[in-house]
Amino acid sequence: MAKSQNILTCTEEVRVRFNETDPLGIVWHGHYIVYFEDGREAFGRQHGLTYLDIQKAGFVTPIVKSTCEHFLPLKYGETFKIVTTFINSNSAKLIYRYELFNEENKLVCSGETIQVFLDSDNNLCLYNPEFFQAWKDKMGLS
Question: Chunked in runs of 10, what are the mean pLDDT values of the chain (142 residues)?
Answer without folding.
Answer: 68 96 94 97 97 96 98 96 96 97 98 97 96 95 86
